[in-house]
Amino acid sequence: MKNLATITVILILVTLLQGCRHKTERLEPYGWTLIESKFDSLTRVAEAYMYTPISPDSVEAVVRQMDFIAGTSTENTNELLARSRYWEAYLCNRNWDGFHARQALQEADSLTSDKYLKERIGSLSLTTENFKAYETFRNLLQQLDYYKSIGDIPQQGNTAMLICSNLAYTDAPDIALDYLYMADSLFKASGTDARCINLGTNEATLLCIADRKEEAEKVFNRLFSDSIITNHKDGYEVLLRNHYYFFGDSASLFKGYAVQKDKEHVTTGSQSLTALYESLIADYFLMKGNIDSASFYLNNLKIDVENIEDDDIKSTIYGTYASYYDSIGQKEKAIEAINRYEIIQKEIDKSQSPENKIYTDYLRAKEQIQTEAKAEKNAIQIRLYAIIVVSIILLMSIIIIGRKWYQRHRIKYQETLQRVEQRERELMGSALSRQHSEQILDYVDNEITRLGNQNVITGRDIAQLDRNLHLQKLDRKGIQSFEETFTSIHPYFETNLRNIAPDLSDTQVRLCAYIMLGMNNQEIASMLNIKPSSLRQARLRLRQKFGLTKDDSISEFLKQFTPPMLDT
Description:
The chain is an all-alpha fold.
């Protein structure tokens, strides 16, 4: 048995150690399972680069190192390659290169079996494929719960930011702001509050969509004075572009175009953004009536509009072309541009409806349920507090009434005890008086014997005998009075005794009464008119009938049949 217990304890300890080891085999505070020390260190660097003012070159250098380690590793090769492809896709997505991002994600998904990585691949795939779609939103909500369940706080923040951006394309800017503030608090809680350089820009944009322009302008001014944002080209460019959209600030438009042109990396995504700026500037000059300047910027586009992946950018450029061709009198080209603009807009509307209304209605219903639940909770708390107060009042009332009742009955009980003690004293006096009578009877008996032996009996002798007989009669009345008084004080004493020992004689019942009253052996022997030795035998027989041992107290035993009276 000892060996079995030892083995059981060892197995439990091993299981606990394995559990602890498994718990610590993650890259805190993220959900990545530790797999290779150098690669894990690079993963931490890559995570730190997400949404921070780091140049794409730095991210690309980290991805190259990851790819090298994955290619030269002899263990966990597929998993390392999958993670490397994931970060490659993240870099491509950051550079607006959706085509290569999708290819890298497909390869990563085929190589990995890790649930955490598959979740991140799914999220990045959906946001790359159709960022505004309802399916993307629903997946992000599920992932938010998943990252919460594994304790990955930074990724919770990233997902909340993605949900916020997804909702920015709906008519629910207030709900989008809730997720933005959630992301901000999560970043601060995880110590990665610099992760999202665009958080402030998104806040300003959502405030504008919610028609809270004064609040938005304050946020824009704060961001423009932040050197970290102004030195980050991507973030600064988005900030300037959004400021132009909502406030029509031409200075922001031209400054944003300059920042975009100054970017070192030339990709399809960056060319698309440059084309967007050039069409916006052309539209600005068209509104000013400057056809030549508008023509210059439209003819400066370095990319075929049909090769642009973002439908919003595409529709904006075609809209500008329609206005331009209409202003120079080329009606056919203007109609062609308008038709293309309408087709793209229909595609945009198709990608968003009717599902976007479904999930905004869902979120509003969820908020309503939460508000009602909170109100119900407050009402329950108020009722609970009221019940507690009423219960306390009732309890205190019961305590006060109980104390008064106890004091009243305690006084009554003490008075009853005093009456019982008084009657027992009287009974004891009656018993002692009977003892004295017994002594007189003994004297009379002796006198009769003496007179019988005399030859001559005088009148004096007869008078003396008559007196003694009268005393005996009085003594019998005393005995009867004693029994009546004892019975009135302890009415169930004899009945209870006979229930225990039905064969008790009247003399034994009286003996029990004398013992219960606390008389000593000499007094009891005198009362019963027996010798002390006979009394000892009588007490022994009582013990036997009651089943008592020599160590048991017969007087304590008898007292249990005489509870104090509570009523007068």
